[in-house]
Amino acid sequence: MISGLYSQEVLQGLQARDRAVFARVYEHFYPLLFATARKYLGEREQAEEVVQDVFLRLWEKDFALEHAAALKSYLFRAVINQCINHLQRHRLLESHHDTIRHLQEESYLCTFLEEQELRERIHYAVERLPEQCRRIFKLSRYSGLKNAEIAHELQLSVKTVENQMTIALRQLKAALLDPPEKNIPAADRLKLLLWLLSI
Amino acid sequence: MTKPTDHYSFILSCLQSPEDEALQAQLASWLAADAAHRELYRQVRLLWEQSPHAAFFEEADAPAATARFLQLLDQTKVAAPVVPLTPARRRWWPAAAAVLLMAVAIAWWQYSRHRVQWIAKTTTGQPDSVLLADGSKIYLNKHASVKYPAAFTGKERAVQLIAGEAFFDIATNPLHPFTVVSGPAQIHVLGTSFNVKAANTTIQVYVLSGSVAVAHQQHSLRLQAGQGASCNTRTGEIKADSAAGNNQLAWRTRELQFTDTSLQAVCEALSNAYGVTMVLDPGISKERKLNANFSNKTLPDILETLTALYDYQFEQLNDTIYVHLPVKR
């Protein structure tokens, strides 16, 4: 569905330092790579710098990637390595010792990439929730507030908060985990399909 | 027990109240009853557990970041050696100057765009307060230091407690969460009032109203009104502090309440509230209990009352209080 970015043409564009291809690949992978770096580095500026560095290196040096399909795992791995460098450079090694040990295990990275992709899909699905529902879900899951606290902040009843949370969970599950051929009305299926195509 | 349409709200309350044993028992039997229940629960729980991590994706503005990257690419091109296409020197020299000028302009634009004017406030012998741009207030105890922006821009509001103790009264604004950064620890709030004391390797937090989350790397702890916690900045450990109470705010409120409080704890509260050092005679029992309330009293008044209640002498010399047994005649 996103084969457009895993083509030999894109790979050749990167290798030929085509500015437009770089822009396209950068914009597409930025959220995933940024969120990955952001998990290990304290500030968003640092996380963005790490992603920039990875792409600048691609630009400045020849990179030999044989299979276009491996582009995502290549970039993910490069960002992780750059994070380890950053932590080591800033003498944060000691406090991040366990983190770094984990990050060097291939099996952990595999699971981690999958988790990050699910989180990204959750992010997009949350953005598509109705406004009130979205705000309540974010306060609960992103900011860690209790239902009563959300009710207090937004001047709503606790029951309303609970109901909206239920609606959010139901919609997220339908959008992310239900197989498209089952139980989804044609209109919703079309929407989901368009959404998947747009990623 | 639950209608099929209620499955989601049932699972939601189970996820939100892991401490409710009756509910968890109900969940166990519901799960045991049907494989479809187990699959639904597994999926909803997956979404529930993964969704807090989706928050970082909110910060990722891909189009803006891509624009910044392309700018960086253009600057990298400038940094590469400029090879004149023609042997005539004066041809590339003005062009290089123009390019350099542009690079400087871009760098300046980048710099001014990200610049936030920070203001520092430091107290010495007198407490003081600061009114922030959003209407929030910070009350600083003696020998405290904070840094705050002249204006809050962007999604989050953040200030720094550099040293000492301060009381924060934060204006409610759910869309712009407020964070107090103290060394490696952060305190996240929406709208609330709370006290933070940073000393050596410990950061103490006490909440008067609302609720906050104290965070240090992977650790984090939520606190409600009337609850306190201390964070060890070296190990990152955050512990609930059951002894914390309103007396922690006495440096500002001048309200002290002692209920069956040991002399030891009374001395700690006084030293904290009035910024004095307490020196006790070795012969004095630190466990002797006190029941008393002091409201808006000066330190000499309090010492006089304590002398009467305890039949010990409380004497002040500069910033030190000496507690000793009465001199026998």
UniProtKB/TrEMBL annotation, chain A:
GO terms for biological process: DNA-templated transcription initiation. SUPFAM superfamilies: Sigma2 domain of RNA polymerase sigma factors (SSF88946), Sigma3 and sigma4 domains of RNA polymerase sigma factors (SSF88659). Residues 26-91 form the RNA polymerase sigma-70 region domain. Coiled coil: none annotated. The keyword Ribonucleoprotein does not apply. Pfam families: Sigma70_r2 (PF04542), Sigma70_r4_2 (PF08281). The keyword Secreted does not apply. GO terms for molecular function: DNA binding; sigma factor activity. Residues 119-172 form the RNA polymerase sigma factor 70 region 4 type domain. It comes from the Bacteria. InterPro entries: RNA_pol_sigma-70-like, RNA_pol_sigma-70_dom, RNA_pol_sigma70_bacteroid, RNA_pol_sigma70_r2, RNA_pol_sigma70_r4_t2, RNA_pol_sigma_r2, RNA_pol_sigma_r3/r4-like, WH-like_DNA-bd_sf. Keywords: Sigma factor, Transcription, Transcription regulation. Belongs to the sigma-70 factor family. ECF subfamily. This is RNA polymerase sigma-70 factor.
Automatic annotation (TrEMBL), chain B:
The chain crosses the membrane at residues 92-111. Gene3D superfamilies: 2.60.120.1440, 3.55.50.30. Pfam families: FecR, FecR_C. Residues 121-212 form the FecR protein domain. Keywords: Membrane, Transmembrane, Transmembrane helix. Residues 256-323 form the Protein FecR C-terminal domain. The keyword Membrane applies. It comes from the Bacteria. PANTHER family: PERIPLASMIC SIGNAL SENSOR AND SIGMA FACTOR ACTIVATOR FECR-RELATED (PTHR30273), PROTEIN FECR (PTHR30273:SF2). This is FecR domain-containing protein.
